[in-house]
Amino acid sequence: MPAHDVIIGACGGLILWFGWYGFNPGSTLSALDMQGIARVSFNTTLAACSAGLLALFLSYSRSKKWDVAVTVNGFLGGLVAITAPCYWVDPVGAFFIGLGGGLVVVLATDLLEYLRIDDPIGAVPVHFFGGIWGTLSLGLFAAGKYFLPTPTGADVSSPVTGLLYGGGAGQLLSQAIGSGSVVVMTLLASFALFYAVKLTGTLRVSAAGEIEGLDLHEHGAAAYPEYVLNGKDGTPKFIPAAKGLSMSNMPEAAPGDD
Q1: pLDDT classification of 31: cutoffs 50, 70, 90
Q2: What's the mean pLDDT in 191-202?
Q3: Is the domain of 123 the same as that of 236?
Q4: Residue 171: inside a domain, yes or no?
Q5: What is the 3-state secondary structure (H, E, C) of 42-90?
Q6: Which residues make Cβ contacts (< 8 Å) with residue 213, sequence separation at least 6?
C-alpha cells in the first residue's frame, strides 16, 4: 500500500517534540525548580537529537537513502527514552540515552518485521521498546547529584545514582522490576480483553473490508483522494466509493492489478 504523507507525518513528529517541552519539564511539579526545568529541557533536546541522527545515519548505511520516516521515529524514540530519567541525568547521560533510544527503535522495527507483526506507524518500537530502555536507563545513567523534585524545589535528601555513576545495581534492579511488572500486567490485561472481543466476532473487519480499505469501509470516504493509484500496467485505478460502488458490486480488477 502507498505510504502516508511523509511531510505531514514529519510535521506531526515535530509537533510531538514541541509538546514534550511541556510534558517533561512539567514533571518537576513547580516553576520554583528553575534549574531542574532547564536541565530537563536541555536533556530532552539532546536525547531527541542524538536518537534522530543515529536512526538517520543507520538507515542510510543500509539503504543509501535518507529515510525521513525512520528519522522521525528515531527522535520520537529518544524523546520516549529520556522521559523517565530526564530529571536525574546529566547532558552526557542524556546523549547516550538518546543514542540507545534511536538504536532500540531501529532494531525493534526489524524484529517486528521479522516476526511479521503489523505495526504501520512503529508505535511498539518507539513506545514499548523505547519506553523500557528509558526506564532502565535511569538505573544506569542517574548522575547522583540531582534530587527528587517537589512543589517547592528540589529535595536534597535523596540523590539518585545509577550503576555507571557508582551507585551500584540497586536502582537498576528497581527499574527492571517496575518495568517488568507493568509489561506483564499490561500483556495479561490486553490478551484477556482482546480475546473477549474476539469471542464477539468484532475484533477484525471482514476480508472484503480489508481489500476495500478501512477508510472506505469504516468511514465511507477516501483518506487520500488526491492520490491516483495505478495498477501494474500503469493504468489508473478508480476508488469504488467515489463511484457509489461497494464490494458487492465492484467490477473485477484489471489484469495485473493487485
Answers
A1: confident
A2: 94
A3: no
A4: yes
A5: HHHHHHHHHHHHHHHHHHHHHHCCCCHHHHHHHHHHHHHHHHCCCCCCC
A6: 222, 223
Per-residue confidence band for 36, with pLDDT thresholds at 50, 70 and 90: confident
- Domain carrying residue 254: 206-258
Number of structural domains in the chain? 2
CB count within 10 Å of CB 151 equals: 10
Q: Which three cell numbers stand for residue 150?
A: 517537589
CATH number of the domain enclosing 153: 1.10.3430.10
CA-CA distance, 38 to 149, in Å (whole number)?
13
Residue 1 lies in a domain: no
Compute the distance between CA of residue 82 and CA of residue 90 in angstroms, rounded to an integer: 11
174: pLDDT confidence band, cut at 50, 70 and 90? very high
In this structure, the number of other CB atoms found within 10 A of the CB of residue 169 comes to 12
Q: Which helix (H) or strand (E) holds 195?
A: helix 170-199
Same domain, 119 and 217: no
